[in-house]
Amino acid sequence: MKNTHHGLSPALIVLMSIATGLAVASNYYAQPLLDTIANAFSLSINQAGFIVTAAQLGYAAGLLLLVPLGDMFERRSLIVFMTLLAAGGMVITALSQTLWMMILGTALTGLFSVVAQILVPLAATLAEPAKRGKVVGTIMSGLLLGILLARTVAGLLASMGGWRTVYWVASVLMVFMAVALWRGLPKVKSETHLNYPQLLSSVFGLFIKNPLLRTRALLGCLTFANFSILWTSMAFLLASPPFNFSEATIGLFGLAGAAGALGARPAGGFADKGKAHLTTTIGLVLLLLSWIAVAMGQYSIIALIIGILVLDLTVQGVHITNQTVIYRMMPDARNRLTAGYMTSYFIGGAAGSIISASAYQHAGWNGVCAAGAIMALLNLVVWWRGYHRQP
């Protein structure tokens, strides 16, 4: 593999963190706007929730079909091209006049915004081995900050110029980011000699042969389902009585999640020091407990904010730990390892969106919290029934 550890400067880490956050944010601008979009297109809660689900399913497809290409092609060109295509998807969303056109735009954006998951293993490749977990933690903090701050930015922009403004501004930012990445990234190409069908089949081969990857992928799936269960329905809770918050106010709750995400940065460093087991165990226990505060959030904004902080801290901490552990394996296959792990991760996110919208429609906020707590408990059961022995 042609690369050098000297190619990863602090400035490049910052650029890659921002690019990762901006790319993945494009899948989440809709969440604080769901109530507004539902009214604009005369949609039910379930139909509006499917907009988020479509983005996540597109993302899952991109993870499986496109991310492995990072082990095949020169990565800077691939990253820039995919960034531009993701911007094109947001233009379609901004122009949409029907639900299906909007779903097409969000699905295409999701498909190509997996460029974020090519940037993460690239950072792991360029980093010094002793600092790999710390670098991955920094980049992944950028990713989760993008997911969470997307809600704040979307709410503010929508309050100033309508929901379509969000997608016009975001598409322009993605074009500027493509230019910055072209100028800032080094050229890195893997020496793999697999063709595309072999590349895809090898992702499944890695799952079959590697119990550690299966373990961490399942943990990631269930953990991100928790995250999605919380955030998909929160706009409906906060837009209804007794809160009746505006889009801008709802978006501000992303700041609480962002604070939680930043708090999880040290998880990669703990994994570098051999404490991945401890980080995972503590994270999963706190994840379950966070739903108590979230459930109380329908009566108390303070309780809701505490729940958001703890849930996002633990989701991000477990996620960083998972990725740090799997990146120790097979350096020449990091994009395929990422594809396998993150496909499972975002399938969990898509499932969480469906579960959340359905739970809210049929049982309100209590139903959402019950679904989240059950998912968190299932994750703990999986971990303690033997998977906790994995590194």
Task: List key phrases describing it.
391 residues; membrane; mainly alpha; transmembrane transporter activity; transmembrane; 0% strand; Growth Hormone, Chain: A
Q: Can you describe this structure?
A:
By secondary structure, the protein is mostly helical. The chain has one domain (5-389): MFS general substrate transporter like domains (Growth Hormone, Chain: A, Up-down Bundle), CATH 1.20.1250.20. 79% of the residues lie in helices and 0% in strands. It has 15 helices and no strands. The chain has helices at residues 10-25, 34-40, 45-65, 75-95, 99-112, 116-126, 132-161, 163-184, 196-209, 211-239, 247-263, 266-272, 276-296, 301-326, 334-384. Helix 10 (211-239) runs antiparallel to helix 14. The chain is globular. The model is unreliable at 1-6 (pLDDT under 50).
